[in-house]
Amino acid sequence: MRRHVPLALCFIAGVFMAIQYFIPHPSVQAWYERLLAWLQTLLAFAFLIGTVSLVRLHAHKIGHKVAGRGYSWVLFVGLGLMVGFGFKGRAPGSPFDFMFQNVQVPIEGTMFSLLAFYIASAAFRAFRARTLEATLLLLAATIVMLGRVPVGDLLHRSIPAATDWILNVPNMASKRGIMIGVGLGMMATALKIMLGIERAWMGGTD
Known about the structure:
This protein is mainly α.
């Protein structure tokens, strides 16, 4: 029963969500809206389970004196403060808003700034013209970057038009091919889960 009931519910929900697109009956659409409301409840439980799992993981590190356990203490202090401040209110000027604006936002800005350096490093390695494909990629990237800034139009009037052509023809064709592949992969994964072939979401492989 512990395996058959979740698999049956998953199969029924998957089939319903697939066929509801082709049945515009009010009762079917009402059940569709109801399932979406249930999904929000499931997401709330998913956040709760994720928080409990995070606390257990870092409590294990502190309990077993794992190297770097100081970061776990920082996590517990930050988590406790934000939860406590959140219960007092999130209005502008509140302690929660102060922590968010002065801690969370600068941390996110720092992470994205570091990400920009990694992207620049990856672009430098990818754009080295060692092969014909790398040379074409370098030329296309240079034209697109110049076409997206005013200096490109000043250098030559055809650069913005060339940028639009690159983005709308070869780039769009490759993007659609990738999206088709992603869609087919999602359909295959959904069928495997609905038919019980893929059972990793149940906490095991059998």
